[in-house]
Amino acid sequence: MANGKATRDGRSQEGLSGAAGAGKNTPDGARHIAHYHDQHEDYVPVSRPLLQELSTFGWLQEGAGGAGMFFFSGAFWLLVTMLFEHSDEFGKYIPWLLLCVVSMIFGGVLIWVGYRHFQLKQNRIQDIFRDNPPEAN
After folding, report:
1. Looking at the structure, do residues 21 and 54 belong to the same domain, yes or no?
2. What phi and psi, each to the nearest 5 degrees, are found at residue 133?
3. Which residues contact 29 (CB under 8 A, 6 or more apart)?
4. The whole model's pTM is what?
5. How do beta strands 32-36 and 39-43 pair?
6. What is the pLDDT of residue 32?
7. Per the domain annotation, does 136 fall within a domain?
8. Is the CB of residue 107 less than 8 Å from the CB of residue 65?
9. Domain count of the fold of the chain
10. pLDDT digits (tens, 9 = 90+) for 53-111
11. pLDDT tens, residue by residue, 25-41
């Protein structure tokens, strides 16, 4: 082997890690382009703290959105049920109707928080791609 290293199947790593552009410092940052047979993949380096940040956005987005949907849909269902089943005793259920409206507002806020975390994650990913444009072949 030219560089003394081989993959599990005995091929030289020179064609894999020593490919054109691999490890080359460009004004846009480090990049690695793997060449294997007819495939040429362009990899963008992402730091471990950035991946942890993105994963945090993910569970916050899912958690807030899921809890918001729970509050909103449950309160909406209960509100509609009370309006149809107890329309003759409307005054008796006003506190419960108001509680349903407050719960729907709270659910809407949680859904908005989940959506904002989704947008933050998408913006962060777009920043990574903007900082590392594809290399022209």
Report:
1. no
2. -65, 155
3. 45, 131, 132
4. 0.64
5. antiparallel
6. 64
7. no
8. no
9. 2
10. 888 888 888 999 999 999 999 999 999 999 999 888 888 889 999 999 999 999 999 99
11. 444 556 666 677 777 77
Q: Please report the sign of the dihedral spanned by the C-alpha atoms of residue 110, residue 113, residue 118, residue 119.
A: positive
- Pairing status of strand 32-36 against strand 25-26: unpaired
Q: Cα torsion at 125, 131, 136, 137 (round to 10°)?
A: -60
Cα angle, residue 28 at apex, residues 26 and 33 outer, rounded to 5°: 65
Residue 137 lies in a domain: no
Given a contact cutoff of 8 angstroms between Cβ atoms, the answer to whether 52 and 66 are in contact is no
Show the domain range for 22: 1-45
3 and 65 assigned to the same domain: no
Tell me the CA end-to-end span of the chain in Å, nearest whole number: 27
